[in-house]
From TrEMBL:
InterPro entries: LolA/LolB/LppX, OM_lipoprot_carrier_LolA-like, Sporulation_related, TP_0789-like. Pfam families: LolA_like. Gene3D superfamilies: Lipoprotein localisation LolA/LolB/LppX. Residues 79-171 form the Uncharacterized protein TP-0789 domain. This is Uncharacterized protein TP-0789 domain-containing protein. The lineage of its organism: unclassified sequences, metagenomes, ecological metagenomes. Transmembrane segments: none annotated. It comes from marine sediment metagenome. PANTHER family: SPORULATION PROTEIN YDCC.
Amino acid sequence: TVICFLIFFGFTAVFGEDADDIISKVQKKYKSAEDIVIHFSRVFTWSLSGRTNTLKGKIYIKGEKFIKYETDDQVFVTDGKDVWSYSSATNQTIVDVYKPDEDEFLPRELIFNFHKRYESKYMKREKIGDVNCYVIEAVPKTDNEIQFLKVWIDSKRLTTVKIEYTNINDDVITYNIFKISFDNNLNKGFFSFKSPQGAEIIDLRNQ
């Protein structure tokens, strides 16, 4: 799952700004864009074994409905109504009615639904490399797959640098975001999917 950008509860002022101000500015910047392209790496760490799995990919977002998620072995595309999910490992395309999942395309959830779904518990400043970041730690308001969430925000550019969350199995999933571009002239046709020749197509929309 993905997935793939904030409220502060019981806050005190930090460096002259509070979390609500920062969150609002980040969301305003993201929502004002015609579209967003996010380049990321995702590290999944299993709690029981300590094993990790790393993949790289891109998330394309246009408004609240249009999403495309690409990695080396998977493509997920939705227009807000239907969803196409292709796996190169199985050479299958599954088509279904889109049912938003709270940790699916987590960066998108942080852009549009953070205030509704999360309460922040703590805030501080921290450096990632040479980037000064605001750090927001949050918990969901209702039970879901995500148990605990941390977000690092570039304090100068007001863009997301890193997202880390713990799921119900205590596995840790980390998104390192190394590039974000705005207003890339993506049209709605970009968020359609043509299954590769020879792939099996499984249509679940009428089931």
